[in-house]
Design goal:
Aspartate Aminotransferase, domain 1; globular; 3 domains; three-stranded antiparallel β-sheet; alpha/beta; 19% strand
Length: 419
């Protein structure tokens, strides 16, 4: 009696090896023969990427998604409490009702099917609020910065950017055809030197900075920077993400007094406005150019109507709600006085914004301090290297209009005892 070919499968796995053996049996009952082969299976995660995760973990810098807590909020960017505002929520709903909008999505990019009337109405409202010729909405602040810097500066141009510029600015610069050079944080002398060094060899010079820096909470000497850009005919781009809602008579940010002397302003809505999205504000020709060349605008589905209604409602609320803005300013002033009273001022980066950063070098140490503060009921986050430079690890404390003096004093008292 002869056999038909029979095959059996064995799965073998070791620490660095995975695969399977195939045994093939041939022949008849009297003289069977056995042949086996080993086939490698692809690992379910590349070893090179696993190594990078292990390196991050060994440096005590592995990022993990936090679990929601009911601790006192000193970590969110919701400076005015707008993300939890029932008035804004209801106003957004009424905008949709008045316009008879019941759709849940934009249905496509704005250049295809997603440019419904509420889009352009909201952009006109934003431009008017910021006293600018035009505004163009993007899906996020990240998209706005990547879209701008990858599209506007050209091959024979140069971009000069503050060394502490946000990752979205730096990522946009990496996608640009222009050359780029960083200058020391808020150092106008070095910026001037770089302008003088490159001005005769390039077509245009673009200067990129932030009005309030997201990790330090400080600001550049904005008036002097505007004058410097004017003196040499440079184009200044200002990210106002952490200034919107916090500074200005109506929460408009820090750039408005300088008008069109600032080439472009990036307004991000996920902080002071408590919602989502962003806008680039500037000349009408800039808007037209970005519609045609900013890839993060062209090749993405537009924002849904509810997002636009929330942005419009948040702007209306910002203009009318002087109470929240004043409460935030009062809290910033109180917090700075308490730092001085407790002798903690040298620990903090100097700044007058809602972001207060206490430098505590070392990932392990700052994580330990943050954990102990959390155990006492304060939601404070440690910012680790490589997000910030090694030796500049910190507690990033965010102040809000809804924090009480008791809460702020309690946090600083606890910090003083821990240190």
């Amino acid at each position: 009696m002869s056999w038909s070919t029979k095959t059996s499968l064995y799965i073998g796995k070791a620490r660095q090896l995975s695969g399977f053996f195939v045994f093939t049996l041939r022949g008849d009952d009297d003289s069977p023969s056995v042949k086996f082969s080993y086939f490698c299976l692809m690992d379910n995660f590349p070893a090179s990427l696993q190594q990078k995760l292990q390196q991050r973990e060994s440096a005590d810098a592995l990022r993990q998604l936090p679990v929601h807590s009911n601790r006192i909020d000193f970590s969110s960017n919701d400076y005015l409490g707008f993300s939890k505002s029932a008035a804004i929520f209801e106003a957004a709903h009424q905008i949709l009702v008045r316009q008879g909008i019941v759709q849940n999505g934009a249905t496509g990019s704005r250049l295809i099917s997603g440019n419904y009337p509420l889009y352009e109405e909201t952009e006109r409202q934003i431009a008017k609020f910021h006293q600018a010729p035009s505004a163009l909405l993007f899906n996020s602040g990240y998209d706005a910065n990547v879209g701008f810097f990858s599209a506007v500066p050209q091959r024979n141009d140069v971009i000069l950017f503050d060394e502490l510029s946000h990752a979205s600015i730096r990522d946009g610069i990496r996608l640009s055809a222009a050359k780029s050079f960083k200058f020391a944080h808020n150092d106008l002398d070095e910026l001037r030197s770089l302008i003088q060094k490159h001005r005769d060899n390039v077509t245009e010079i673009y200067i990129a900075t932030e009005s309030v820096f997201s990790m330090d909470g400080d600001s550049p000497q904005l008036e002097q920077m505007v004058l410097l850009a004017q003196e040499y005919g440079c184009y200044l781009i200002l990210d106002e993400a952490h200034a919107l809602g916090v500074f200005g008579d109506c929460g408009e940010g820090l750039a408005q007094p300088f008008g069109d002397r600032i080439f472009a302003r990036i307004m991000t809505f996920g902080k002071g406005l408590g919602c989502h999205g962003a806008a680039i504000i500037g000349a009408e020709d800039l808007r037209k150019y970005l519609v045609n060349f900013a890839r993060s605008f062209i090749y993405t589905t537009g924002l849904p109507p509810h997002s636009l209604a929330t942005i419009a409602a948040a702007y209306q609320h910002l203009q009318n709600d002087a109470v929240a803005r004043q409460a935030l300013r009062d809290n910033i002033n109180f917090f700075n006085r308490e730092k001085l009273r407790l002798g903690l001022k040298p620990l903090f980066v100097y700044g007058k914004s809602a972001i207060q950063s206490a430098i505590i070098p070392g990932n392990e140490k700052v994580k330990s301090v943050a954990l102990q503060l959390q155990q006492q009921g304060f939601e404070v986050k440690a910012i680790l290297s490589p997000t910030v430079p090694v030796g500049q690890e910190r507690l990033r404390i965010c102040l809000h209009s809804y924090n009480t003096e008791t809460e702020m004093s309690g946090l600083l008292d606890a910090l003083q005892k821990l240190l």
